[in-house]
Amino acid sequence: MNRSVYKERFKTFLIVVLFLLTVLLSYFYWQGSSISGIKESVNGHFSSTLFTGEDHIDAAYFVTPQKVDVNFGNGIYTSCQELAPQLWSDFIDSYIAFTEMENLMIEELSEAQWLETMDMKSIQFVFEYDMPVEFFESLGGSNFGQSDYFNHVSAMALSEASTTSLFIRDDTLGKYYRIISDSDFYPLEEKVLEISSTVSDQYYPIYLFLGTDNYEMAPFSTGILLPELSVNKLSSESILSSEKDLAKTFFGENLDFVRRIVDDSNTITYMYGYGEKMLTIYRNGIFEYKETPSSDVNSAGFNSVFDTAVSFISSHGGWSSFGTDNISAQLRSVSSTSVPKVDTYNFVFCAGSKNRTLYGNSASQIAIEITGDQITYYKGCIPAFDNSSFIEIYPENTSNALITDILARDHQYIAQTLLEHDIITPEAQDMDLFDLVVSNISSISTEYYSQYFEAQVRFVPAWTIDFSGFKVFYDLYTGEFLGYLKETEQ
Amino acid sequence: MEWSKIKNILIVALILTDILLVSLLIFSDHGKNDTDSSVSVEDALVVLSKNDITVSSKIPDVDPEMPVLTLTYDSDNGSFFYTSSEAGITLTENTALDLAESFISGLALPEAEKNTLEAVNVYPSEDDSGRYVVSYGSYYEDYKLENSYILCYVSSEGVTEMLKNHAVAEISGNSKQKIMPAASALLKYMNQLKSADPDSAKEITDVSLVYMVDSPYDGNITSDTAFPTWKITASDNSITYISAYN
User: Fold this and answer.
1) Which of A24, A115, A475, B96 could pair with B132 as two cysteines, CB 3.0-4.6 Å apart?
2) Is the ipTM of this complex over 0.95?
3) Domains plus CATH for chain A?
């Protein structure tokens, strides 16, 4: 090959390189960047891998029912917690097919009709929060435009009362609906049979066993086997050693011009401007980020806001704070307030294992507030646990303490505690205390309760009796009282 | 036309385009930095005087770029009371200053730190005790640290009380940032003044560049960040701080 051929090849190569460079420079110019801005973005991209190394996570991943109540018919029930994500995932395909059907019709049901429907062979996906209906519209086909009728979905259900219908409960409105299609869309019989062969726990409506007017499902004979979880704590120095990496995710690579304040409790505060953006990192690793809402904040739909929340948490280390693959994040609360022009949404995510929440451990909670399209509050935790020390401890005695025994033994103490925390009124004490406690139960489930030791945290499997957000915890195996929490103190 | 010539033309065109784009990006960088530097002191003084603001002090020249400082407060800051054996001294500003100097030299502070302290003011105490207050300021190079001070209350018996809020300053990080010239700071001051009261008139008696912490913070601070700030003092003793970073 002679020299001129090499020369021509080199020219071709040079043209390609110059063309790519032109495209890149045009992009930066179009974005309004400057040379210093480009440098910052390049540096920022490669910095803080501890906090930004997570791939994009689909927001829908965090939305799973807390439990799936199954009525096998003939007065036999169960409630699945650990299996709930799997059952929900299986259901989604049928749900999408349903929402793509033509001629869907909606009908409001009375509470009595709902109870009657659920009293037949049925499967009910129960969420712990009222999820805006826009989320479910985005999951499904274009024909599921139901936000004109109801705003939230608290539970979705299927019943042999009408196998061509999807049943919806909206606890925010206190209303019940059924959406009717032309044909069957979910193999209810097959699924119920499948669940009955894998789950042996028996649940019953509370009124059946305890005689009060309470239709919530409760376990009265179970064989739940949950391990205790144990993980070593990292030292305060070790946790705070990554505070600058965290701060860089909020304020950029160069922190030299961001005000940094350390107080005598070793709390570190980063402040931008006159407090327009503020990051406070406490010595236990918990941090709070606050941003003053800007005057030109734009309104955004729920799904966009939810995606923004999940992406923001991903890029600021949120999900890694749980520190171990055995513990994952779950959406635990959604609420919104409307202020003039824009909505403010609040999301709370909690660490969980086996679809059970780890309660009583502030390091396992992520809270985020979005005003319009702007993040205005974010609370998370720098990884505070030694990932490699995580172990599951299975009990020697695997029989569960009976919830009926616990209620019979401790109903007076529970009533007194509920009274002290204004969950019940003093006048209510005129009722029989046992009936008073039982009638106020909003759910009974198995969760984890955190116990702190000098060098480690243990998450103890616990019967969790919920009284409208006030949770009382008892050891799953021994029935010993563990503690109580208000919803806001998770 | 031959392919080889077309390639040559393409290469030249792309190189020229890239040079143009790089120039535009660099130009936009300079544009950001030079926002305020075009205001001359003379122009500023003319505008100020037209708005009833006179400047009787020297307007300082400062380094064009300055870093921020990390202030680490002494762990023993607070109020301290002393009894002294000194007696029979007639208390004047000068004797008060001498007594305070002697007291400061005996303080348990590193020598390097003592060298950054400078008596900035001596004035009668407002508590009717007949004492003088000798106020010491800390300096980083030639710049006063507004949030670091020692107040010595001096009676004829010597220093009887000390209020200490002393911090050690060091450069935070490696970066420096362009400083807003004094002329621009004075114009900002004028805008603030006139937006509050359009008829106000002032005589500026001092313009200086200091380091200070931006805003208050609830809690006992052990370390904070101080930024270059213009301190503008008027004849009515009012003090206005203007951030010196653009």
Assistant:
1) B96
2) no
3) 64-199 (no CATH), 231-392 (3.30.310.160), 394-453+462-489 (no CATH)
